[in-house]
Amino acid sequence: MSAGYEMEDKTKILIVDDHRVVIEGIRSALKEVPEFELVGEAMDGQRAVELAASLTPDIVIMDISMPGLGGLEATLQLKRSLPDIQIVVFTIYSDRQHVIALFKAGVSAYVLKQDPLSDLILALKAVKSGGTYFSKCAPKLILGHVQELEATHKPKDDLEKLSPREVEVFILLADGMSVKNIAVKLYISPKTVESHKYNILQKLNLSTPTDLTKIAIRKNLINP
């Protein structure tokens, strides 16, 4: 039997961006990756929601600032109507407000347009395999958000002691995800997750993952 993606289900991609040149650049890059199939293009969030309902893409590449319905609102609508859909944000915005809002909305990846286009392909491959991908700015901004919230609560939980990767693991553990699933999601080994888990508990002077959940809920990082 000959190998080829014709024998497999390709990952269906929907591009949402209000700049034609960006869409064309992504389309060109996707042509070089046979595991992906471009099924649609939209230039605003409302059209993206409509197309997603009919095309049922696996992954949506989502811009943030667009006429009419923006990327955040479109993401929230898509995640409500199609919970299994994966959102890869592709944007020029690297500020904390956007990163935190989209992180809470449930995006699987956050890639900056200033980064090489190859980073977007890496993000798509990570998400396709059940993982996540964030530009270097994102974990730092999430950590900054945690630190700011930390200053408004007593007693302190020393979350500023956590590295950006530990912040990611902390949130996933607090949300009830297993070590094995975290390893798959973050593209690391279960042994590495266990190591992060141990370090997190030690740094925060906690004894069980349940304690992590209490902290995360109080800081609005997960829903109760």
Summary keywords:
224 residues; alpha/beta; Rossmann fold; Arc Repressor Mutant, subunit A; 2 domains; 10 helices; disordered N terminus
Query: How far is it from the N-terminal to the C-terminal residue, by CA?
Result: 50 Å
* Largest beta sheet: strand ordering: 2-1-3-4-5-6
Tell me which oligomeric state these chains represent: single chain
> What class would the helix/strand composition place it in?
alpha/beta
Number of domains: 2
Proper CATH architecture of the largest domain = 3-Layer(aba) Sandwich
Number of strands: 6
Series of H and E elements? EHEHEHEHEHEHHHHH
Helix content: 40-55%
User: Total helix count?
Assistant: 10
CATH superfamily of the largest domain: Response regulator
Strand content: 5-15%
Main sheet attributes: strand count, strand direction, barrel closure: 6 strands, parallel
Average pLDDT for all residues? 83
CATH class of the largest domain: Alpha Beta
Low-confidence stretches: 1-7, 153-157
The value of Rg in angstroms is: 18 Å
CATH fold node name of the largest domain? Rossmann fold
The coarse silhouette is elongated
Describe this structure in words.
By secondary structure, this protein is α/β, with parallel strands linked by helices. It folds into 2 domains: 5-135, Rossmann fold (3-Layer(aba) Sandwich); 139-218, Arc Repressor Mutant, subunit A (Orthogonal Bundle), CATH 1.10.10. 51% of the residues lie in helices and 13% in strands. The protein contains 10 helices and 6 strands, in the order E-H-E-H-E-H-E-H-E-H-E-H-H-H-H-H. It has helices spanning 20-31, 45-55, 71-81, 96-105, 117-128, 137-150, 164-174, 179-186, 190-204, 209-218, and strands at residues 11-16, 36-42, 59-62, 86-91, 109-112, 133-134. Strands 2-1-3-4-5-6 form a 6-stranded parallel sheet, with helices on both faces. The protein is elongated, with a radius of gyration of 18 Å. Mean pLDDT is 83; it is low at 1-7 and 153-157.
